[in-house]
Amino acid sequence: MDRETGSSDVSSGPIGGGAFSWTWLLVWLAACFGLGAITAWAAVGAQWYFAPLVIFPLLTGVLLGAMVVGAMRVAQVGNRTTIVLGTLLAVVVAVVGQHYFQYLETYEEESRPAEAFRLAAQKYPDEVFGQPPRPPGSLVEFMTRQAELGRKMGLLGYTAKGAMAWVSWTVDGLLVLAAGMAMVIPATRQPYCSRCRSWYRVTRGGRVDVAVARRIAQVAEVAESEEARSARCRMLNCHGGCGPTALELVWQESGGGTVLVQKWLEPELRRSIDEVLDRAVEPTEE
Ligand SMILES: [Zn+2]
Fold first, then answer.
1. Cα 190 to middle of ligand 1, angstroms
2. What is the rounded distance in angstroms from the CA atom of residue 265 to the CA atom of residue 104?
3. pTM value?
């Protein structure tokens, strides 16, 4: 059971995200297009070795989502609409791109015999019969042909043909989308400082004794868990250190539940909590 308390305190802090800008949107979309293309290219290569159903598109989505989150933090892109639009584009490029790279491969493979056939027919018109191999002329033509051939699903030797092949590709795409969004959406919920345009990052944190966590909760005047088995404390700040500190206390309860308590700390309160933590680590440094 997860409970969140103290979230009303959070709304007073800098959680509005970055402002929207068309320039940033265009730059971000271009970057996400690139990330999607890299993912598609890597996925086509990996498929030769390892492509279990369901798991492969989920892994693809996780990889893509991790790259989008990394880019978002490195470039300090803070507008959530911009981030989500970029992620959508990256997923579409990663999914369609996989088919596109396969189409290019097939085109390349089939162009050579087609050319050889054409040359032979030119040279020996009386001895060469039949139709030359015809490489697919477009991505849609390639996919329609693949659908007719059918897609082996690996399970029970089932082959998805025609509409079922398209359904299976769509499901793959949705799995990539789900996994990608599952990585990106929680990352955008972190606080973002719109003054110095940076994401909050952990500046101090780790596991603390329950007694220390109780002391922190008392100093910060936030809820304590009665049945806490262990506790973690994290403090987050923006890059410029301009905003208040975000305090997160996580109580692990003996029943297996987790209670998250969050609060914005003004500098004075932050110093008090630093003192509590400093005193707590002193004995171990002897
Ligand atoms: Zn800041």
1. 13
2. 56
3. 0.80
Quote the CA–CA distance of 238 and 223 in Å, as a whole number: 25
pLDDT tens sequence across 44-94: 998 877 778 889 999 999 999 999 999 999 999 999 999 999 999 999 999
- The answer to whether 146 and 29 are in contact (CB under 8 A) is no
87-145 confidence digits (pLDDT tens):
999 999 999 999 999 999 999 888 888 888 888 888 888 777 777 778 888 999 999 99
Q: Calculate how far, in angstroms, residue 265's C-alpha sits from the geometric centre of ligand 1.
A: 14
Non-local CB neighbours of 7 within 8 Å, separated by 6+ positions: 262
Token duo for residue 81:
């609409």
Query: CB under 8 Å, gap of 24 or more: what pairs does 46-52 form?
Result: 47/98, 52/154
Q: Which residue has the tokens 């975000």?
A: 246
Going from the Cα of 200 to the center of ligand 1, the distance in angstroms, rounded, reads 8
Region 144-150: what's the mean pLDDT? Answer: 90
Instruction: Give residue 238 CA to ligand 1 midpoint distance, Å.
Output: 5
Spacing of C-alpha 73 from chain mean position: 12
The answer to whether the Cα torsion of 139, 71, 190, 249 is positive or negative is positive
